[in-house]
Amino acid sequence: MKILVCISHVPDTTSKINFTNDDSQFDANGVQFVINPNDEYGLTRAVWFQEQQGATITVATVGGPETEPTLRKALAIGANDAIRVNAHPTDSFFVAKQLAEVIKNGTYDIIIAGKESLDYNGGMVPGMIAGILGYNFLNSCTDIIVDGNNVKAIREIDGGRETVSTTLPLIIGGQKGLVEEKDLRIPNMRGIMTARTKTLTVVEPVDASINTKAVKFEKPAPKSAVKLVAADNLDELINLLHNEAKVI
User: Fold this and answer.
1) How far apart are CA 211 and CA 117, in angstroms?
2) Collapsing DSSP states into helix, strand and coil, what is residue 157?
3) 89, 127, 158, 212: which has the highest count of C-beta atoms within 10 A?
């Protein structure tokens, strides 16, 4: 069984975020980048398939040379090889088009992508890949069992869970539940050293239309200071709730 895990190179949530060029471009200076959490759940599940069913794992991303440390970490966790599409990830369709080309050239059985990335939260790439390739697709997947060519999966839906049956090849949008946080793999020294010798292939992008662009980014307004009201001053509390908070 061949598995492709799509990896997004995203800012760590502890990083301070700023924008440049009149707030139209993300400023990456001083920002620490990590594997997108939803993708890391998928990668860890893929390693489980590797250990239990002899699967081979390829990780792939769309990005420049700055993404290679993230791919090397994925290799240290357990992936067999990595592919980097040498292009800036401009929008969801462009990324999906590049990854679809990688999949066509690699004939993978299962493609695991996070249901959304931590930076833009678009949640569109896995479904777009499935649409381009005509593959079966399950989003918000929390469990997956593969028996030959048959797949049984569980996905989150409004108000509960849904169990579905399908066949390979399959694309899933994974999330927490594929594994739990306690099961995530931390690369050990052996894995880090081995990752240095594993294959990291760089491929050039295919032509794809770019249909969207970021016009402006805006950070949330800073929270105002807390106002304390004496316990016996009910009139002041009602005044603040009505005229400032506007909740009554």
Assistant:
1) 19
2) strand
3) 89
Neighbour order of strands in the sheet with 160-167: 160-167, 150-157, 136-147, 170-174, 110-114, 2-6, 56-62, 81-85, 200-203
pLDDT in tens, 137-155: 999 999 999 999 999 999 9
From first CA to last CA, the distance across the chain in angstroms is 59
Longest dimension (CA), the chain: 72
Q: Is the peptide bond between 169 and the residue preceding it cis, with omega within 30 degrees of 0?
A: yes
Helix (DSSP H) and strand (DSSP E) numbers for the chain: 6, 13
Mean pLDDT of 200-227: 89
| pLDDT of res. 59 | 98
Residue for token pair 């090889």: 81
Other Cβ atoms less than 10 A from the Cβ of 108: the count is 24
pLDDT digits (tens, 9 = 90+) for 181-196: 999 999 999 999 999 9
Say if CB 46 and CB 3 are below 8 A apart. Answer: yes
Tokens for 177, please give them: 């539940």
CA angle 49–7–52, rounded 5-degree value: 5
Q: List 155's β-bridge partners, or say none.
A: 141, 162
Burial of 244 (C-beta count, 10 Å sphere; 0-12/13-18/19+): exposed
CA dist., res. 95 & res. 85, Å (int): 9
Looking at the whole model, is its pTM more than 0.70?
yes
Angle between helices 125-133 and 92-106 (to 10 degrees): 50
Residue 10 phi/psi, 5-degree rounding, is -125, 155
